[in-house]
Amino acid sequence: MPRSARVTFENGCYHIITRGNQKQKVFLESQDYRKYIKTLSKYKQRYKFKLYAFCLMPNHVHMIMEIAQALDLIKTMHGLNLSYTLYFNTKYDKVGHLWQDRYKSKILYKDTYLLECVSYIENNPVRANIVANIDDYLWSSYKLRKDNNPLVDSVFTL
Q1: Domains along the chain with CATH numbers
Q2: How many other C-beta atoms lie within 10 A of the C-beta of residue 142?
Q3: Which has fewest Cβ within 10 Å: 3, 81, 117, 123?
Q4: CA 11 to CA 65: how far, in whole Å?
Q5: How far apart are the first and last CA of the chain?
Q6: Rounded Cα distance, 45 and 29, in Å
């Protein structure tokens, strides 16, 4: 049975989740996390979306992004996942799928739930007992937001 078409909207805000195939780790060392963030930045410049939050966990990724053009979400995620897969498979001498199925995207309304979702995403490493304090996790938007890094857009100006 064919899967249904993904519904996207102009100026839509989405919670994106993409998980490693068979829940395998997709980030094995610091260089891998840095590569994903660099690739994310490249696609943000190309498609001009707003990135309100992200968290790179060892076996999955969470992001909140707002896209201007409906097809930009599909183009961004296809390019991002494909680019990172090619990097990962080359580096670790692997073949085949890195990501489980296609990414999930849930529409978010820009209200107080968006702030709750940002908090949920950025606190993921604490809930998973990877770190005791959110300040100690290097691979999320939390630290970048505190440093006013342009990769992360302010959620407080909505």
Answers
A1: 13-152 (3.30.70.1290)
A2: 22
A3: 3
A4: 10
A5: 40
A6: 25
